Here is the input.
Amino acid sequence: MKIEIITAPNEKLKETGFGSYKACQSVLDSINKLGHDVKLSVCRDLKDLALVVNRKPDLVILAVKYISIDNGNDIWLSEYFAKHEINYSGSPREVLKFDSDKVLAKSHLMKRGLKTARYFTAIPGQYQCESDLPVAFPLFLKPIDAANGNGIDDLSLVTNFSEFESKTRSLFAEFNMPVLAEEYLDGREFSVAIIKTEDSRCIVSAVEIIPPQSTNGLRILGAKVKKEDSEDVRKIEDRIMLNKVSKLAVDAYIKLGIWDFGRIDIKTNKRGDCYFMEANLVPGMTLGTSYFPLACEIANELTYDEVIQLIVEKGISRVPYDMSLAVAGNTVQSRFMAM
Here is the structure.
C-alpha cells in the first residue's frame, strides 16, 4: 500500500496534532515495519497538497487537522482529500469541528444527555460583576480551542471576580477569541484512547492523569506540566471507576460521530461523578509521552507499533488491499476478540 503521512509547519498551528516532526517520523517508522510504501510530507500550501493527490496514495495519515495559510483560509485536510477522492485517516471535517471548538462539543453532548461541566464563554468587559456570571465561583478558565494545555496554569482556577477579569483579559489577549469558563470540578482527571478496529469494534484504553502539586497546592494539568512530562499517567485499578469513565468516553465517541480513533478527556467531582471535558481527534503521537499511545500501553498492553498498526489498518480497510498485509493486524485484534 502507498501511504503518506501529511503534516504542516508546526509554527503556524495553534493545535499541534500528532506533534513534532520527530513524532511523525516515529509514526513513519512504525508503518515501515508493516511493509507499506510510506513517506512523510510536510505540506505548506495547495501546491504541496496537489502533488500528494497526483501521487495517488492509497491512504493519507493526517497528522494535523488543517494547514494555516498566510492571508488566506485554513485548508482542512480531511475536506481537501475527500474532495479529491483520496482515502484519509481520522474523522471528517464536520466531526473535527468538535475537536477545535470545546464549547461546540460540550453543547452537542449536553443536548444528547451526557454530563459536562456547566460553562459559559466570556470576553473582557462582558460581565460587570460577580452576580452577572452565569455560573458561580470557583471557575476554571481556558482557551476554546488551544491544545497541549496552552493558556492553562494555576491562575486558570479563579475564585473571585478580580481573578476572573484578569485571567479573561490575559487569555483573550493571547488567543484572540472568547474564553471558556467552566465550573471547577475538584475530583480526578482521566483520558481515554479509543481505536475502532477493521470490524468496527472499539478498543478502549482509559488511564488516570495526576499532575504534580504546585507551590499553591493545586494539581493543574497545564502547558508547563505537559511540556516537562511531570504528570503521572496511571492504570485505573478501581473497576467501578474504570467502567464509569470508559462508558462516558464511548458514549461521547459515538454521539460525536468520531471515526477511526480519538481521545476523550474526563474529570470527576469529589463525589466521583464523571463529566465530559473535551475530545482530541488528532491526538499526540510522541513516542513515550503522548497520552494516546501511553493509555493504550498502560490499559491494554499495546505497543506503540501496534497502536499505529491498528490506525493504519482501519484506514486501509476502506480500500481493496492485499489480504496478506492484514495478517499482523489480525494478531493485534485477536487479543481483544475474546474480551
Q: What stands out?
A: Confidence is low (pLDDT under 50) at residues 321-329.
